[in-house]
Amino acid sequence: MSQHQHTYIIGEIGQNHNGSLDIAKLIIDAAARPIREELFGMDLPRMDAVKLTKRDLSQELSASQMSREYNSPHSFGKTYGEHRAKLELNDEQHFELYQYAKAQGLDFVETLCAVGCLSMTKYFMPDRLKVASRDLTNLPLLSALAETKIPIILSTGMGGFKEIDDALSTITRYHDNISILHCVSEYPTRPENANLLSIKALKNKYPRYTVGYSDHTIGISAPVSAVAMGAKIIEKHITLDRRMKGTDQAGSLGVEGIQRMVRDIRLIERSMGIEDVFIADSTVSAKHKLERSIATNREIKVGETIQQSDLHLLSPGDGFKWHELEKVVGKTATKTIPADEIIYQENLS
């Protein structure tokens, strides 16, 4: 059998930490938990990375939008600007979380929303940089990110092939370590809008790049299905409790959801196999036990010639098959064969 693939799974914390380092660390702990499949006693690879988001509020929204009143139940401030400021962690705090994640063996990915956010590279270099869907057309930002030579992940939720091509043209002036994630920028995404077949379109159009899926649907069926369709990266929002305050919390996976998604993705990886049809070694015992063989439907006495009307099919499957009928019909029984018993070669002359 071929070696099963490994899907790079990113737990997107984003700003589900609600401005708290302690909450962020607890979410990292959840992402780092081991994955166990109990029935077969399998210890499976856990999540690969966590991702945070960094904004530079001076390069975020227009002044009028930043100062507008924000009355959402998820608001952390009177204005949208105050709300956004409450959710931001500074460079030193991102560095602390980077160290915390790396100590647990997790990669650390950053979505940087402005050129000014690159100030964090004075403290550490993320394992990958993520470009949010809204910045797919932000070519100055893409150029600045690419100049660092850090691998880049593009999210396609607000673009088509032209926007992707323009982004690739910008980044590849510096490097081509690029991944492309199908994404639908609807939060949460309705199932009928997920359009997972876009993964195949991206794989066909961009065979030289790694293609994956950034998921905003509810539950785990879409990301697990995406892996079955060939996605090599999965990104999914994660949190401690989906009932927490925050606009992304309800559409995220809680601690148990993280476990289920990673478990099922790892099981799908093992389930894919090879593009062929064959009798697997693991089914031989079941084939022997359950498949049907030619058997008597009445007692056949020694010396009798066996007719087709004397026969039917019963388990186990270690005797003659129906396509071998000529090896039985017309043959003479060398011993009495009871009704409803398998006929073996040693029973025949």
What do these coordinates show?
This protein has an 8-stranded parallel β-barrel with strand order 1-4-5-6-7-8-9-10, surrounded by 6 helices. It has a two-stranded antiparallel ribbon with strand order 2-3. The chain has 2 domains: 8-271, TIM Barrel; 281-347, Type Iii Antifreeze Protein Isoform Hplc 12. The chain contains 10 helices and 12 strands. The two termini are 42 Å apart. The model has no long low-confidence stretch (mean pLDDT 94). It has helices at residues 21-32, 63-67, 80-87, 91-103, 139-147, 161-171, 198-205, 221-228, 255-271, 284-290; strands at 8-14, 35-37, 42-44, 49-54, 107-112, 128-131, 152-155, 178-183, 210-215, 233-237, 293-296, 311-314. Helix content is 28%, strand content 17%. Helix 5 runs parallel beside helix 6 (161-171) and helix 8 (221-228) runs parallel beside helix 9 (255-271). It has 349 residues and is α/β, with parallel strands linked by helices.
